[in-house]
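Lesson 9: reading folded outputs for more than one chain in a single document. The general rule is that every protein is listed as its sequence immediately followed by its structure tokens, and records are never interleaved. Here is the first one.
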Amino acid sequence: MDSFEETAVRACRVAGEYLVAEFERESHDAEHGANDVKATADHGAERRILDVLTAAYPDHAVFAEESGERSGGSSYRWVVDPLDGTNNFCSGIPYFGSAVALLREGDPVLSVVRDPLHDHTYVARDGRATFDGDPVRAESSVSSDHATVSFVLGLDAVRDDDLRTQAAGLDATLAGRCKRVWKSWAPTLDWGLLARGKLEAVVCFRPDEVEQHAGWLLAEASGTRLANEGDLFLAAASDEVFAELREALF
């Protein structure tokens, strides 16, 4: 697992260096759709990550956000989000990152999340989570009525009318039980903040695969309280917030 971690961290670092350089430019080439943004930087970061991963493990399967699925001959599969927070990136908002998860026979065994602007790296593996190499635990003493909760919607939930209606109901429920509902559009970084106890909870509705594997494993490894029912996921940094939100949402 050490070699897998080293390779994943290196891949995210290479992508991050590229993204920081691109972010400093005055304008960015991008296609702006009704529900999503695709930037040239997405493809550039993905290419750099895949170059590192495929050179080290040519027999591994890979699913990457921009290029899709590539089959492999082993039990390992990499899931890559090269630029999480593309809308932020293109709008000049300094909150974006890269994430890589490694699955073995379908189960996540390694997660790496890179925050390149702040030179931070989160890693989850073997039941432990680290932040820049130091162990972290998701613990917060902030009560639910003062909590900041990240609310994450997958693209399916944004594009479908019925799912948007369900999401609006969840949003209203959260707003009635915490101080702030945080919608960053860069959920892998939110998972990192939760792992450090900086956020009180993360709630996801129909999350995208390229983000969820890395984030959920980081939550598990940092000791968050977890609940999942169908397309709805809850992770919290305290027993009180977890109990309050679980009762309200499930």
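And here is the second record, again sequence then tokens.
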Amino acid sequence: MLPCVSAIHIKKRVFEDEGCRYTCWSVINTNTYVINMHSSGKVYLVGSGPGDPELLTIKAERLLREADVIVYDQLPGPEILASLPENAERIDAGKYAGDHTLAQGEINRLLIDRASHGKTVVRLKGGDPYLFGRGGEEAMELRDAGVPFEVVPGITSAIAAPASAGIPITHRDHASMVTVITGHEQEGGASMVDWEWLAQSKGTIVVLMGISTLGRYVPELIRHGSDPETPVAIIERGTRPDQAVTTGSLRTIVDLARKRGVRAPAIVVIGDVVRLHSELMPA
């Protein structure tokens, strides 16, 4: 039986039971107690980079070796996922386009549950966890539950995938600014993307998770004044051995993507820097 604390006033007491560390709060004028059972567990929100295993950070690699539990997406890619240690509990959280094995709320509860039992948990994400990876949402849930967590940044595909396709997203002769947007905003709300401003800007636009909605936002940019001949590149599976690149213009890219069967994971780069692809594409 767990120790109790007299409910005379609000009081915090820390105790151990069977190797686990608990925090017990007493509540004024009641004999009901709330037990925070996060023990010594911790959650690491880890970015795996764009997919090339050699672009996984040293810290991420170490944490994967030491993890008791690994909750992963599909975006890290097959090579990284195949290398996950067999001694860890490995949980597929899904996140395929339109087919999520676990809903976000279920993932949040899973992270809290495993850490509450003293486990070291790695939440493995593609790219960087804080760039359209819902890492911020998960961090807030962990904070509210009193679960210790740490964010381990990863190389974002917004930079790495274009680079692997010979496209620097900035260049003094072509672009002095970059805007990274998501092509998959939260359903049910008004768009937070200012398409008119983007259409008038002179910088590079990088769209993550923007394949299924390509036919929506490309006409939106043209409608707000973007030149239909603005160069566009779609990079599928950037940095991986099966990387594929499709180039065109705002006028042609939707049809090209449809004809070539372009599929996620892929990023879209819009802007003058795409012209450098043919010059700088690695041999």
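What the second record shows: Residues 14 and 23 are 5 Å apart (CA to CA).
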